[in-house]
């Protein structure tokens, strides 16, 4: 069978030379490199708002998901002129803020996009997040746990959006009005997590060491902090089934959806139907609640 060596993609005034377009990246799904890059192009209006202005860490898989992989923080070289960078801590990060940059990263087999909690130009966060991290690879109680977090937030008059990690867990994403610092948000996360552990000791834990968690679901309120990263909304993940980190509705939580249901094969249709659930969520004011919490 003939295998193309190279395909040229035209992006307005830019051209991207895509080598080995027929290479299988997700063999179980039959997703080739060309299809992956084309899907990224369709996802770009939804993904780029969450990567623009943040420090990017990618995971590259030059031989597909079953091959050798490596994390990359420093911008690959040589880089096209349209790729912007930002320096921090001796690292020159890619600023993933345009369609050509996204597709260039995809052409380099970047299969996951992890972004910093902190923004490049603003030290005051605009989002609070809680990482719900199961100890078990397959956790049948995951959506029960997510619903309990959502119920507690609702009781405080707050609205948030669950987002599958694309792996085994879920992150709760709450757009907030700027004002609280990352330390303030950690106090809020600790309050939420400690309360849930006290109320549901057979389900939740805040134990950092995985070996000490048993089968409990870890509430990681520490991961959302300056310098730390989490998968961006709409980031693919390098796992079988080609899952995508996807915002979901509370109705879907109640239906006990599985994170693997959202993948590169169906994400574009989902976005056309549902839009971006995080962008549609109103920003919450945490200042009144923070005033009532202990300072430490």
Short summary:
This protein is of the alpha+beta class and 296 residues long. The chain has helices at 33-51, 99-107, 142-155, 182-199, 250-254, 267-274, 287-292, and strands spanning 6-11, 14-19, 24-26, 31-32, 54-60, 70-72, 84-88, 91-95, 110-119, 127-134, 161-164, 170-175, 204-205, 217-220, 229-231.
Can you tell me about this structure?
- The chain starts with 5 loop residues before the first strand and ends with a helix.
- Strands 11-12-10-14-13 form a 5-stranded mixed sheet, covered by helices on one side.
- The chain has 7 helices and 15 strands.
- With about 300 residues, it is of the alpha+beta class.
- It has 2 domains: about 5-120, DNA primase, PRIM domain; about 125-290, DNA primase, PRIM domain.
- A hairpin with a 2-residue loop joins β1 (about 5-10) and β2.
């Amino acid at each position: 069978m003939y295998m193309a060596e190279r395909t040229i993609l035209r992006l307005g005034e830019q051209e991207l030379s895509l080598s080995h377009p027929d290479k299988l990246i997700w063999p179980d799904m039959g997703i080739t490199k060309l299809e992956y890059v084309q899907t990224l192009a369709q996802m770009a209006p939804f993904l780029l708002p969450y990567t623009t202005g943040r420090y990017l860490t990618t995971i590259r898989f030059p031989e597909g998901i079953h091959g050798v992989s490596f994390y990359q923080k420093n911008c690959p070289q040589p880089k096209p002129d349209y790729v912007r960078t930002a320096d921090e801590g001796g690292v020159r990060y890619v600023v993933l803020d345009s369609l050509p940059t996204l597709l260039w990263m995809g052409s380099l087999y970047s299969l996951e996009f992890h972004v910093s909690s902190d923004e490049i130009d603003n030290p005051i966060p605009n989002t609070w997040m809680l990482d719900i991290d199961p100890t078990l690879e397959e956790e049948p109680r995951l959506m029960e746990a997510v619903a309990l977090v959502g119920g507690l937030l609702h009781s405080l008059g707050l609205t948030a959006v669950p987002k599958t990690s694309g792996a085994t867990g879920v992150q709760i994403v709450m757009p907030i009005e700027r004002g609280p610092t990352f330390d303030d948000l950690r106090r809020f996360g600790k309050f939420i997590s400690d309360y849930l552990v006290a109320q549901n000791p057979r389900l939740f834990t805040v134990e950092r060491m995985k070996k000490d968690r048993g089968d409990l679901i870890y509430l990681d309120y520490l991961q959302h902090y300056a310098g730390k990263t989490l998968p961006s909304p709409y980031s693919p993940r390098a796992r079988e089934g080609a899952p995508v980190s996807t915002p979901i509705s509370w109705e879907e939580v109640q239906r006990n959806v599985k994170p693997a249901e959202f993948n590169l094969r169906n994400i574009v249709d989902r976005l056309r139907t549902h839009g971006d659930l995080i962008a549609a969520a109103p920003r919450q004011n945490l200042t009144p609640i923070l005033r009532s919490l202990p300072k430490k």
